[in-house]
Amino acid sequence: MRLKLFWQFGLAFLGLLLAVLLAVDIFAARTLRRDYLRDAFDQLAALGKVAQARPPQLDDPTALRSWVAWLAQGGARITVISADGRVLADSAHDPEAMENHAGRPEIRQALASGEGRSVRHSDTLDRDLVYLALRQQPAGGQAVVLRLALPLKRIDEALAEIRWRLAGASLVILLVAGTIALGVSRAFSARVRRLEAFSRRVADGDFRPLPLERRGDELTALTRSLNETAARLDQTIRTLTDERNRSAAILRSMVEGVAVISAEERILFCNEAFARILGLQAGKSEGRRLVEVTRQAELLGVVKQVLAGREGVRSWLVMGTVRPRSFAVTAAPIAAAGANAGTEATAGAVLVLHDISELRRLERVRRDFVANVSHEFKTPLTAIQGFAETLLAGALEDQENRPRFLEIISEHARRLGRLTDDLLKLAQIEAEQMELDFRAVSVAELIEGCVETTRLRAEQKQLTLAAECPDGLPAVGGDRARLAEVLQNLLDNAVQYTPAGGRVTLRARAAEREVIITVSDTGIGIPQADQERIFERFYRVDAARSREVGGTGLGLSIAKHIVEAHGGRIWVESTVGQGSDFHFSIPAMSPSSEVFRA
Ligand code: ADP
């Protein structure tokens, strides 16, 4: 590019210089010739006057020849020609050898008007001459023409000299101006190259501005405007990148699966949640057809409807067979860019998959709960109602059965009371209204208290009750009464579900940052399938038996809530026919703090 610019500048300059030189040459030649001719004619005219003042002797050839020689001393060539064109005398040539001159223009002019001028080539002398011809009329004789001539050579010499000087000056000008032009064009093309490199740098994403030159010309203005453009581009790209990062972060952190589907039903974008839900490889599904990655007819149907122009289609689908999960599907069309309102062109669809499995489960739990509660209340209420009506119908008089009936009514009323107590407790816990009085609780004391309460019942059932609590156990942080409730519940269950002659053991051990308390029995055990569910509300392995012994099916559920409210865990290990081990852990009291958790 540098070369191109240089040549462009150089040729333009050279062309200009040549044009100027040519003009100067033509002008100088013309002026010089004009001036020279005027001078030459003036000179010849002066000489002519001298000749006319002393006219020649025409009839004496010798006298005429010497007169011509005398006049030629004035520097001009002198010729005397008769009216019929014959050369009578010539200062530069032998008149005998000269041809007839009647046809020469200056001669004809002079014969016609007295004076003739011409500038032409002389055949006789073979050179260019300036001629002045004057008619001379001697008294009583034939008219002759006196012709004076000066060579043009001097003009040519002067012109040649001027041309040489001009050429010399031009060479100097060419050298000086060429050097200057080279320097200017070099500097110019360097500046242009700098701008070119800058624009390439901007295209590559480097937006640092170019330092401004002190010159205030167009290139500086261009630099300034390029700098502004780069700064604006930088700002726009930053804003766009920020926005994109923000959207990407939002989409990434969303638990909902989001996907953008093209009008050709290809996945243009999907977030990780979407890929996870459909079991796709994250980041590798873009560009694939939806029908290739999923067989979900429901999902495909929804997309088709939206692409056909339907607004906000909703549906739901179930994914997975082993652990089925339910999803609500919402799909909305993306208006095609440039589509006018009213036209139905859709550029694609946005799909949102929302996991509603938990919602569904909670709905089911709530439904089951209501059914369970009604069921639990129904038995005692039916019994109370039945026996009360029997009493009213006359059994009140029946001295023998009356106490038994009343006893039954009272027993069922107590059961109702226990049920409502447990339900209230559960409701409180679940509403997170349970107030825990956190303190340091000694595990040994906790175990001792519960063992004391249970000892009598264990003895009645002929069970061996033992407690193994090592010394130096750390205190746990928690609500003493609530923790006692948990332990008591586990102990009661152990006694309850262990046949006579069995053994119930309480153990406590310190683990990392927590204390684990275990209640083991040698009782009936819990089938594997039920082990996970016994902590659910109202779940009982043998509902009839539990009810018979006054159980509500809520004990373990309440225990689980209390333990979790303390930041611990509860779990069971059990073998049917051999016994069960119920464990629960409570975080140990941190030695540095008085109150573990507020
Ligand atoms: P319940 O009032 O029926 O005892 P829980 O919530 O305390 O209610 O217990 C739920 C169910 O777990 C019981 O009905 C019983 O089937 C089973 N279960 C609890 N503890 C034991 C145990 N130690 N041995 C065998 N089964 C148990």
DSSP summary: helix tally:
15
Q: Total number of β-strand segments?
A: 17
Describe the strand arrangement of the main beta sheet, using strand numbers: 2-1-5-4-3
The class by helix and strand makeup works out as alpha+beta
Shape: rod-shaped
Cα-atom radius of gyration: 65 Å
Give every kind of bound small molecule, once each.
adenosine-5'-diphosphate
Contiguous runs where pLDDT drops below 50 for at least 5 residues = 593-598
- Please describe the biggest sheet, giving its number of strands, its sense, and whether it closes into a barrel: 5 strands, antiparallel
Share of helical residues: 40-55%
Mean pLDDT: 87
Distance between the termini: 79 Å
| Strand percent estimate | 15-25%
What is the structure about, briefly put?
This protein is an alpha+beta fold. The protein has helices at 2-53, 61-72, 105-113, 153-203, 218-253, 272-278, 290-293, 297-307, 357-392, 402-430, 443-460, 480-496, 528-531, 543-548, 555-565; strands spanning 77-82, 87-90, 115-122, 127-136, 144-151, 257-262, 267-270, 313-319, 325-335, 346-355, 438-441, 464-468, 476-479, 503-511, 514-521, 570-575, 579-587.
Question: Can you lay out the helices and strands and say which pair or pack?
Answer:
Layout: H1 2-53, H2 61-72, E1 77-82, E2 87-90, H3 105-113, E3 115-122, E4 127-136, E5 144-151, H4 153-203, H5 218-253, E6 257-262, E7 267-270, H6 272-278, H7 290-293, H8 297-307, E8 313-319, E9 325-335, E10 346-355, H9 357-392, H10 402-430, E11 438-441, H11 443-460, E12 464-468, E13 476-479, H12 480-496, E14 503-511, E15 514-521, H13 528-531, H14 543-548, H15 555-565, E16 570-575, E17 579-587
Parallel strand pairs: 12-14
Antiparallel strand pairs: 1-2, 1-5, 3-4, 4-5, 6-7, 6-10, 8-9, 9-10, 11-13, 14-15, 15-17, 16-17
Helix pairs in contact: 1-4, 4-5, 9-10, 10-15, 11-12, 12-15
This protein binds adenosine-5'-diphosphate.
